[in-house]
Amino acid sequence: MDLQLNGKKAIVTGASRGIGRAVADLLAREGADIAFCARNAAQVAETEAALKGAGVEAAGAICDVADGAAYRSWLGEAVTTLGGVDIFVANVSAGGGMEGEASWVANFEVDVMGTVRGAEAVITPMAEGGGGSIVVISSIAALETFAAPQAYNAMKAALLTYAKQLGQAAAAAGIRVNAVSPGPILCKGGFWEDAQNSMPEQYQAVAAAHPAGRLGTPEEVAACVAFLASPAAGWVTGTNLIVDGGFTKRVQF
Length: 253
Ligand SMILES: NC(=O)c1ccc[n+]([C@@H]2O[C@H](COP(=O)([O-])OP(=O)(O)OC[C@H]3O[C@@H](n4cnc5c(N)ncnc54)[C@H](OP(=O)(O)O)[C@@H]3O)[C@@H](O)[C@H]2O)c1
Description:
Helices cover 46% and strands 15% of the residues. The chain has helices at residues 18-29, 41-52, 68-82, 101-128, 151-170, 191-198, 200-208, 218-229; strands at residues 9-13, 33-38, 58-62, 87-90, 132-137, 175-182, 240-243. It has one domain (9-183, 219-241): Rossmann fold (3-Layer(aba) Sandwich). The chain is built from 8 helices and 7 strands. The radius of gyration is 17 Å and the shape is globular. It has 253 residues and is an alpha/beta fold. Residues 14-20, 37-40, 43, 64-66, 91-93, 110, 137, 139, 182, 184-185, 187, 190-192 line the site of NADP nicotinamide-adenine-dinucleotide phosphate.
């Protein structure tokens, strides 16, 4: 199937590692130009070079999504550099944390406002370009009781409501909005790789809770994001695609 991504212009937050990197790699292989951000300069440079190696335009920026002013400024630059925007993937998260109010503030600023500010920055240029697709990365932690009562889970749930309602509001402008909720994903240098070494029993229990007996990969999530981002998903909006290999047990009606 041709995803019709060739020549599209995509902005991906947090694309130097993990799921965001797999998304950027796949979109670039499909012919999309990419603007992305992350905080680590060396990893931004390495990613930018790798994406350019796929034969597309790539522009990496060192930008902390938690810094609202800097983030808005980068979003504007990214649209200008790309010459428009067809795809926005809101991927960055502050991660889980049990630091009391500090965790709530961090997950609100990064997960929620990182998505809201990004959507607000791209909606107008996306509409002017004839429409596009926004993909919000949530988590199965929003859907079922997971780990502990914490800001991460609640803020990921807020994103699902926001994505659904934004999809309703933006549809007339040809903009689709969907969420992807991954289950536990084994990323190089990520939380679960660390858990594999630091708490192997808990890691094995999580792996065993998957019907296939393993965690997912960033590439398996990226394939779903690329589909929703693409014109091939032209009649899909307001959905939440759970990408967890059957880790969650609820029936989706
Ligand atoms: N991995 C999982 O098991 C899993 C499961 C469900 C949902 N998710 C969701 O999937 C998304 C990606 O997760 P991941 O595991 O791939 O994360 P990750 O491996 O920690 O990668 C995060 C990426 O975002 C960048 N980043 C982090 N904080 C940033 C900030 N404040 N500003 C700018 N860039 C930032 C990182 O680079 P720098 O550190 O250099 O900034 C990196 O490129 C998140 O929304 C996460 O909640 C992940």
